[in-house]
Amino acid sequence: xxxxxLLWSIFLAQILLVAAMACxxxxxxxxxxxxxxxxxxxxxYVNATMLLLTFGIRTGSTLYFEAAxxxxxxxxxxxxxxxxxxxRGEVIE
Amino acid sequence: xxxxxxxPVWAAIPVALLxxxxxxxxxIGSIGFVRLRSFYERVHAPTLGTTMGIGSVLLAxxxxxxxxxxxxxxHEILIAVFMIVTTPITLMLLARAALYRDRSEGSxxxxxxxxxxxxxxxxxxxxxxx
Lengths: 93, 130
Prior knowledge:
The complex is a heterodimer of chains A (93) and B (130). Chain A is mostly helical and 93 residues long. Chain A is built from 3 helices and no strands. In chain A, helix 1 (2-30) packs antiparallel against helix 2 (34-59). Chain A is elongated. Chain B has one domain. In chain B, 66% of the residues lie in helices and 0% in strands. The termini of chain B are far apart. The chains are: A mainly alpha (93), B mainly alpha (130).
């Protein structure tokens, strides 16, 4: 019974997260300016981190946690570098 | 899916509720991110997912693995601390970059940069020019 409850709630949560990722992708593709696209990328990787965590709960393995941690790390570096690029026109001065 | 059947009911219900809460918050934030009009309004919407959304999902993951493995599993705190530290930094950098770009284009939607005061004693009180 608990397995059924958990499977359905994980499935529903994954659908909600994929819908959230679709909204962020829409903003990346359609954003009126460059900063909207960068913010969309930021939202996209946060949602992807959550989706990987739900996969980890579903399969019971900790491998997904490490993938989520790497996505969070690389996403922060990418967003910071892109914001720096938008401000200065170059990443490393 | 044998490991999910091992979870007792008192742990399964909070895990399910926390997962649904986190995913709903992420979806609400992303819908706001699509629907709001200006960039400075849009900056605020995804923080719903990056604070409490990911916090709820991490709490669900911690509870699930702690009960399943009968020991304290806390490595999800790494992601939580990392998100708490990095989200304000990235959003501040992005908002500053957007403000700089709007000002350099002479847009009327953003307030003008405060005048730069050189040598005046009250220079410490005003905000530094961006």
